[in-house]
Design a protein that fits this description.
The complex is a heterodimer of chains A (244) and B (235). Chain A has 244 residues and is of the alpha/beta class. Chain A has a six-stranded mixed β-sheet with strand order 5-6-7-3-8-9, sandwiched between helices. In chain A, strands 2-1-4 form a three-stranded antiparallel β-sheet, covered by helices on one side. Chain A is globular and about 50 Å long. Chain B is globular, with a radius of gyration of 21 Å. In chain B, 80% of the residues lie in helices and 0% in strands. Chain B has a single domain, classed as MetI-like fold. The longest helix of chain B has 37 residues. Classes of the chains: A alpha/beta (244), B mainly alpha (235).
Chain lengths: 244, 235
């Protein structure tokens, strides 16, 4: 029953979402942030997007989620996607926890009784089950991050785009969020996760796409990425050297 | 000093005498100002919300213009409306000069920029917060407008109050277009101006006191609404 919470809306189709970024470019004014970026996620369920600050990870996620349109190139999905997006800076409506979750579901045309039922089920993953009428914006940072994950899952997404969802969190909340992500992935939800945390990458990632200066510097499976990457920038990044 | 205390005593007596002339003036003032406020909100809030959500050519100029219009001299507005609606004016055929209708119109012109400008700031800051989330969920333009208006409703009370304050205290425009006709277009502020010039300070002071009491009461109501809805606003 509890695993139903994680199932994507199209769970009859077991193939995970495949993301293809095709020659994407994006610039702010004259500055090129993403430069002819191309990659295709494999069947692996949890893909990580890594890279130094300013590499274009967040921007890439925003383009994949449809918030920003690329100047050139396009994003192709192998099937219809329903995206659960968690931004770096979590934002909630000036409403209660319940209303925030219900609003997201209403956007995706869930029925009223389904909204009530699903929220009462999914909120059991948190410890604020009895605080549904409380303002979402008054929760602690950790709880807000957790609620943002819950909000992204409540719509039964088949693709989760997560931008550093565990930044500034203590190990307790990090482990809760990681467990949720793993379970969702096992139920067929494709996850694309942006982080700087190498340990977290080792714990969760199946494959890593490494960006540097707006381009893909490396795209490999976790084992190869950490032990045997051909990319010098990846080796430098892992060893803590500043990338030029 | 004794003159002042006599005037004060008489004016208080006048307030509690429930004089028909006085109550008619107060009622008409409220009717004109609240009508102008309602219409201004119905026009101004959607314009402010649209401008907050939509990036359009000339947006900065539009906001600059609206901000500038907040300081529009009421006498000038009255003069322009007088020319436009006088018998020989381009819209003279409407025959609304010296009627409460044109007084409402004058007040709309004066308070609409206040409603748009202040609510735009509130709504723009909320949309700035929500934009990424609304776009990621692909919420429509129309729904985005409704969402920010709904979530800003308690903050917008202050805007509405500012608009009402401007309407209630207005005298320059409505004295020109209304003509200060007894029992027809005479409102509190214009009566205060007239009675003061005639030396009838008791009536002027009584109306002034009522005007201040209305203003304090409205502020108090808004304060209480905001206080009791603090938890509901989820800010």
């Amino acid at each position: 029953m509890i695993n139903d919470i994680y199932k994507p809306f199209d769970n009859q189709n077991s193939n995970p979402v495949e993301i293809t970024a095709n020659n994407i470019s994006f610039r702010y004014g004259k500055k090129v942030i993403i430069d002819r970026l191309s990659f295709k996620t494999t069947e692996n369920k949890i893909s990580f997007l890594m890279g130094p600050n300013g590499a274009g990870k967040t921007l890439c996620l925003k383009i994949l989620s449809g918030i920003l349109k690329p100047d050139k190139g396009k994003v192709i999905f192998n099937k219809r996607v329903r995206i659960g997006y968690v931004p770096q800076k979590v934002i909630f409506l000036r409403r209660s926890i319940y209303e925030n979750l219900a609003f997201t579901m209403k956007v995706f045309k869930f029925q009223k009784n389904e909204i009530k039922k699903r929220i009462s089920n999914i909120i059991k993953l948190t410890d604020f089950e009895n605080k549904l009428s409380m303002s979402a914006r008054k929760l602690s940072i950790g709880k807000q991050q957790l609620l943002a994950i819950i909000r992204s899952l409540v719509i039964k997404p088949n693709l989760l785009l997560l931008d550093e969802p565990c930044s500034n969190l203590d190990p307790h909340y990090t482990s809760i969020i990681e467990a949720i992500i793993k379970k969702a992935s096992r139920q067929g939800v494709k996850v694309l996760f942006v982080t700087h945390d190498l340990l977290q990458t080792k714990r969760l990632a199946d494959e890593i796409i490494f960006l540097n200066k707006g381009r893909v510097a490396d795209h490999s499976e976790k084992g190869i990425f950490f032990k045997n990457s051909k990319s010098k920038s990846v080796r430098n990044y892992i060893s803590g050297k500043l990338l030029k | 000093m004794s003159d002042f205390s006599e005037i004060l005593t008489n004016s208080i007596r006048l307030i509690f005498s429930f004089n028909t002339e006085l109550s008619d003036i107060v009622f008409l003032s409220l009717k004109v100002s609240l009508s102008a406020l309602l219409i201004s909100c119905l026009i101004g809030l959607p314009i402010a919300a649209y401008s907050s959500v939509k990036a359009f050519f000339g947006k900065k100029f539009f906001i600059l213009l609206v901000n500038s219009l907040m300081g529009l001299p009421p006498v000038f507005v009255g003069l322009v409306l007088y020319i436009v609606f006088s018998k020989s004016g381009p819209l003279g055929f409407f025959e609304i000069l010296y009627t409460p209708t044109v007084m409402v119109l004058a007040q709309i012109i004066l308070i609409l920029p206040i409603i748009i400008s202040i609510s735009f700031e509130t709504l723009e800051s909320i949309y700035f917060e929500y934009e990424e989330m609304l776009k990621s969920l692909r919420v429509s333009f129309r729904d985005s407008i409704l969402i920010i208006l709904w979530d800003a409703r308690y903050c917008l009370l202050t805007t509405v109050l500012a608009g009402l304050g401007r309407a209630m205290s207005e005298v320059g425009a409505i004295i020109i277009v209304g003509g200060n006709i007894a029992y027809y277009t005479r409102v509190m502020t214009t009566t205060i101006a007239l009675e003061t010039s005639k030396g009838n300070l008791e009536l002027a002071l009584a109306l002034g006191t009522i005007l201040i009491l209305i203003s304090i009461s409205l502020n108090f109501i808004v304060f209480m609404v905001k206080h009791f809805t603090k938890n509901l606003s989820y800010d």
